[in-house]
Design goal:
With 249 residues, this protein is α/β, with parallel strands linked by helices. It contains 9 helices and 10 strands. α1 runs parallel beside α2. The two termini are 35 Å apart. The chain binds S-adenosylmethionine. The site of S-adenosylmethionine (SAM) has 17 residues, from β9 and α9. It is an enzyme of class 2 (transferase). Specifically methylates the ribose of guanosine 2251 in 23S rRNA.
């Protein structure tokens, strides 16, 4: 487990951190003279939780935000805990037979990874697994796009994705790969038990070895006949199909 201080910026990212993880927010910087009511709400909530709040000039925010659109607010944040591969069994076991794991095999675009993490948090996933290489990592843009989810969802960076998939199988997790060319539809899958949903990157899709490790492959039907969905859209569709099934019993 490790923690490191970094700056997060933007209304969604800062308000999610202040709301859900206040103990890791070291200070909040607000643009002097800003009149946005959402900034005022962040200030009220931060002060209520005894977080230091400072009014600063726009240039100071530009400096800490490092190129991100900060919308008049940034926070110094001790990142939520990071997770090691060896913690995967504990996370799966704690889910009591209803683990829902998202595996992203080589997503390159930080906005896509951020959007996937946001959906993953909203769906209440057990963990997200990304490869340590051949994938964008959880950088400031990912954090911002995820609207705070990157600091809430357990994200495991696997040094060897195939090994992590075998580990999941040993733990009794069923692996479904999402591929547009698969014959079976996701709407025919039983997604109620221990399940990992495995999606590929923007250009390459699921890599051959990843595909071979899956217990089954399924597609999201696209009656319009388009080539594929954006990976974050496909992630949202399949995660919330799992949520629907789990809520139905
Ligand atoms: C943009 S797509 C990748 C397209 C890539 N050219 C390919 O050949 O797979 C990114 C990922 O989203 C998922 N995806 C996109 N559309 C899908 C669909 N209709 N059914 C199932 N998965 C889909 C797959 O996991 C895919 O690897």
């Amino acid at each position: 487990m490790s923690k490191d201080n970094h700056w997060i910026a933007g209304i969604n990212a800062v308000s999610a951190a202040v709301e859900h993880d206040a103990e890791n927010v070291r200070e909040v910087l607000l643009e002097a003279g800003g009149r946005n009511p959402r900034l005022a709400a962040i200030e009220v909530e931060a002060r209520r939780k005894d977080i230091d709040v400072r009014r600063v000039a726009q240039q100071a925010l530009d400096g800490v935000a490092g190129g991100l659109r900060h919308q008049g607010v940034a926070a110094r944040y001790a990142a939520a805990r990071t997770w090691d591969e060896h913690e995967l069994p504990g996370l799966v076991e704690a889910a009591g037979g209803r683990a829902l794991v998202l595996v992203l095999d080589g997503v390159q675009d930080p906005h896509n990874l951020g959007a996937c993490l946001r959906s993953a948090a909203a769906a209440g996933v057990t963990a997200v697994i990304i490869p340590k290489d051949k994938s964008v990592q959880v950088n400031a843009t990912v954090r911002k796009t995820s609207a705070g989810a990157a600091d809430i969802v357990p994200i495991i960076r696997a040094s060897n994705l195939a090994r992590a998939l075998r580990e999941l199988q040993k733990l009794g997790v069923w692996l479904y790969g999402l591929a547009g060319d698969a014959g079976d539809s996701v709407y025919g899958l039983d997604l109620r038990g221990n399940v990992a949903l495995v999606l590929g990157g923007e250009a390459e899709g699921l890599r051959r070895l990843t595909r071979e490790h899956c217990d089954g492959l399924a597609s999201i039907p696209m009656p319009g006949g388009f080539e594929s969905l954006n990976v974050s859209v496909a992630t949202g569709v399949v995660l919330f199909e799992a949520v629907r099934q789990r809520q139905a019993g």
